[in-house]
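Incident log, structure service

09:12 report received: a user says their structure output differs between two submissions of the same chain.
09:20 pulled the input from the user's history:
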Amino acid sequence: MQNSILLISSSAVHGYGYLECNKDAILRLTAGITTPVLFVPYAAARSEWDSYTDKVRAFFRTLGIAVKGIHTAEREGMFTDHELIFIGGGNTFRLLQELQQQGLTDPIREAVLSGNMRYMGSSAGTNMATRSICTTNDMPIVYPQGGFGGLNLFSYQVNPHYLDPDPATSHKGETRDQRLAEFHQENDTPVIGLREGAYISISTDFGTTRELYIGGINGARIFLKGKTPYEAPVGEPFVLR
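09:34 re-ran on a clean worker, output below:
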């Protein structure tokens, strides 16, 4: 089965234009698509939804693919007239709150897992695809009343924008590793620390195969409860060990 879920650490990577760092992976994901991408700008402020959609539209235009902002789409046909949904970055808490208020979390999950739609997430959109948003780096600027559960397309956690500890720094605050260790004091779910420029690609049958693929640049680090973190294989399918 073609991998139909693409989870990108960040749309903005130093030295690249918007989404350009992972353009090859996006081309593979969008192969054969003839309908507009359904873009979800809800992680941004409401006043920015149109301009955010225009930014995404400009990128996909280079691939010969149109884009429709979900905030301008009719509910009828939303999940049948589009072959790919892309949830962009911004604040993960704001994104989840809006999806809950619009009653979109279940329909998106069903559309993707049924094979009717492919899924692409970047940053907050990557957090949203996972079991919960509990490993986001964002501040809780709003409180999603429906809880912190994500779409659960990918039953692990991801920490986008993962930063390795810097032994040379004089900063004494918590490292990303320490925060993920705290997560594992309360939770058992594996976490993938996804560095800038890296992506995760899986198929909708991940729940059965448990097989994932990490590509792009800079790679990722795997965090399992009670085990020493290790570097993820890059460029080949693998299963967590």
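09:41 both user submissions now match this output. Likely a transient worker issue. Closing.
09:42 reviewer note: The radius of gyration is 17 Å. The mean pLDDT is 96.
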